[in-house]
């Protein structure tokens, strides 16, 4: 007896139970039903979207529906989900061509090509006329479509879960470099790039890795963001860096890390191609700085919240640390020109001024910093859908540490540190602890709950409300919550809403800084 793979059994069971769109009102033509995909033909992928959330997932890995925006799918008569599909098709390894003049889109996926036009029921599938169930719409330079109908044309098995308000499409795609994962692991990864020794960069293996780093530098001089476990001993598959994934960014150490690495490779080998990479990278950072002194998460042509000035994940601090080293001709950058050093110094000073200006006040008192700021108004702004405009209990610690790293801080910098430390001390949450509870009945097999310990446990919320200074939570629907337990299950277990970073800052880093600067602690006798 042949035993079918579990995924195939699940799909066959769904087919036997019938399609959940069978309840479609008679006034709306029922879409053709997809057939169960088979693994043998290629790679099985499952796409899912949930009403009220500005995301989609491919095999449970979440992506934004429209990168940088908060677009949410809509539900039309007949339980048909209506949403933009461009990012999804690209992430699945397909091709997308959008025609702004015609308000039309051509989508190629799974060996088929579909052309749709806004306001038109008539479409073309591999050049032959077909008719859609719902006319597409053109919104903000993108084409919104009936997901159920479109995925059916590509041969997917589609399903609507009315209870969860969840649409899924499973389809088999031919093996493609675009959907092939980047090589993982190995002796040198994105995570370990900066830990390599000078001897490594002087070796043949080091030169090989530096060439890989140089190989995925974009023409604008910046670098895209790679996963931390990406193997950098072999060339990066640039075909897999599609859509927003290929764009230059300072998010998650991108660009700043690579500039430092190439500087070290140049110092060790004196090979001009590595210096040229550094020069292009520095030019990128200079060109990307806004007149107000900040840097956006993506540049050039950032969209949505990617255009925000970004403190999150040390983005601003990482840029300023590189510029400080360039300006001071530090060991890594002792080879830069005097012109580069002067430009870096001016950009660094402008960045420090912005940090001081961005410190948030609540009830007249200075507190910490937000994760993102509006690039024009410099007001705290929303990041991802669940990262509301707020004071950050995490990013504020990083900013304070950066300010404390300034060798000769001005009086303004010193006061910013003092105010932020006082706020962090007042914002701590005592006597509670986040605890993991195993539960096999749940989707991920566990949950997180907050338990009263009655002891000396100390933690901080990741976010605090701008108006009240109280802990702030959210989910993918962007609605604020006052309590952790009100967060949706997926976001509760897949995002860290608490941080303990400030504990070491207050107990160790700050006292040492106070001593170096000859200042009085704002923590008084409590420390």
Automatic annotation (TrEMBL):
It comes from the Bacteria. InterPro entries: Cu_amine_oxidase-like_N, Mao_N_sf, Pectate_lyase. Keywords: Lyase, Signal. Residues 1-22 form the signal peptide. Its EC number is 4.2.2.2. GO terms for molecular function: pectate lyase activity. It is an enzyme of class 4 (lyase). It holds the Pfam family Pec_lyase. Residues 76-165 form the Copper amine oxidase-like N-terminal domain. This is Pectate lyase.
């Amino acid at each position: 007896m042949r035993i079918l793979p579990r995924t195939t059994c699940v799909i066959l069971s769904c087919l036997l139970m019938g399609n959940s769109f069978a309840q479609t009102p008679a006034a709306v033509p029922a879409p053709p039903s997809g057939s169960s995909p088979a693994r043998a033909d290629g790679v099985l992928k499952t796409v899912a979207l949930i009403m009220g959330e500005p995301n989609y997932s491919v095999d449970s890995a979440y992506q934004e529906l429209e990168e940088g925006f908060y677009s949410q799918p809509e539900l039309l008569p007949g339980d048909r989900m209506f949403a933009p599909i461009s990012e999804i098709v690209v992430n699945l390894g397909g091709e997308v061509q959008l025609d702004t003049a015609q308000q039309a889109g051509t989508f190629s996926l799974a060996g088929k090509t579909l052309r749709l036009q806004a306001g038109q029921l008539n479409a073309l599938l591999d050049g032959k006329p077909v008719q859609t169930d719902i006319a597409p719409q053109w919104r903000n330079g993108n084409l919104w479509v009936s997901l159920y109908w479109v995925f059916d044309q590509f041969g997917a098995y589609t399903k609507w879960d009315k209870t969860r308000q969840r649409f899924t499409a499973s389809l088999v795609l031919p093996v493609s470099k675009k959907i092939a994962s980047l090589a993982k692991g190995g002796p040198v990864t994105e995570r370990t790039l900066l830990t390599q020794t000078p001897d490594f960069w002087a070796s043949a293996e080091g030169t090989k890795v530096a060439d890989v780093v140089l190989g995925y530098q974009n023409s604008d001089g910046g670098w895209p963001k790679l996963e931390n476990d990406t193997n950098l001993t072999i060339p990066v598959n640039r075909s897999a860096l599609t859509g927003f994934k290929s764009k230059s960014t300072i998010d998650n150490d991108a660009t700043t890390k690579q500039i430092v690495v190439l500087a070290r490779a140049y110092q060790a080998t004196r090979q001009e191609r590595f210096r040229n990479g550094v020069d292009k990278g520095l030019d990128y950072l200079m060109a990307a700085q806004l007149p107000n002194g900040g840097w956006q998460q993506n540049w050039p042509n950032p969209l949505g919240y990617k255009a925000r000035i970004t403190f999150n994940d040390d983005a601003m601090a990482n840029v300023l640390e590189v510029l400080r080293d360039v300006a001071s001709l530090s060991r890594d950058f002792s080879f830069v020109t005097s012109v580069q050093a002067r430009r870096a110094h001016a950009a660094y000073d402008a960045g420090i001024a912005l940090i001081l200006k961005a410190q948030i006040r609540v009830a007249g008192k200075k507190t910490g910093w937000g994760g993102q700021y509006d690039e024009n108004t410099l007001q705290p702004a929303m990041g991802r859908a669940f990262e509301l405009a707020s004071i950050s209990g995490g990013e504020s610690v990083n900013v304070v540490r950066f300010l404390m790293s300034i060798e000769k801080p001005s009086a303004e910098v010193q006061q910013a540190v003092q105010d932020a430390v006082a706020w962090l001390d007042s914002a701590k949450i005592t006597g509670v602890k986040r605890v993991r509870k195993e539960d096999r009945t749940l989707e991920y097999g566990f949950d997180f709950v907050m338990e009263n310990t009655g002891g000396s446990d100390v933690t901080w919320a990741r976010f605090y409300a701008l108006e009240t200074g109280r802990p702030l939570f959210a989910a993918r629907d962007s609605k604020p919550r006052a309590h952790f337990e009100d967060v949706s299950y997926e976001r509760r277990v897949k995002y860290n809403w608490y941080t303990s970073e400030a504990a070491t800052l207050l107990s160790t880093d700050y006292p040492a800084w106070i001593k170096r600067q000859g200042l009085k602690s704002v923590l008084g006798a409590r420390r």
